[in-house]
């Protein structure tokens, strides 16, 4: 016949030990009738509760404690996520700037050296010297085009157009007058004109550039009215205002940049008409050697 310890329920077979080998309870009291049964029962109840508490305490000590560690909340994570997104955006812009610089260098190498094959393999960005801009300048007058590159890369076409016009005035030393004379256009630095044209063509995937405007103007035999109708500067019988331009990629081919007028398509800038300004810029672009078409990034 088996016997259980009244405190921890450990089983025993005869001969029964004097004390429980698990909890240490005196097992001999069950073999005789105690003089004070009620007092003994209270002592047994106390022993059982004490044993149960002891087992509960042991189990809690075995479980890992997480309360001492602070749990991350959404409030903790969001600032970190925003910081990482900002760093990623900055890295993307820097990469686009470097890629644009490399493409510009290759463009000038090909444009000014007829012996280079169009299929020739060129070094990567990392193969060029850090002072590459001094060897292959994007500007003859020291213009930093990084701000324009960022605007074009973001697709902020309106701000990019306004900034392009400010650059043109600065390069032509006509900021105070806010317009260019024909002689200013005729003397406009070739490198800078090609750079402005190429950047617009590259970042718009060929939609916006002086080259696209020039081709349309040439195909229409220099008819300014028909030209404006085709590029979206004239709607029906109405010449559009600058604020009415379509500064999206849904605009017609050659819709931007605006270099022949600023207020309204039928108004010139300064003392020249818009078609005179446009013809002068196209003539200068032709003399500066028509740039190669940009190789657009895959989307």
UniProtKB/TrEMBL annotation:
Domain GUN4-like positions: 139-260
Protein name: Ycf53-like protein
Any one Gene Ontology molecular-function term assigned to this protein's record: tetrapyrrole binding
PANTHER family hit by this protein: TETRAPYRROLE-BINDING PROTEIN, CHLOROPLASTIC
UniProt cross-references to InterPro entries, sorted A to Z: GUN4-like (IPR008629), GUN4-like_sf (IPR037215)
Organism: Planktothrix pseudagardhii
Source organism superkingdom: Bacteria
CDD domains, per the entry: GUN4 (cd16383)
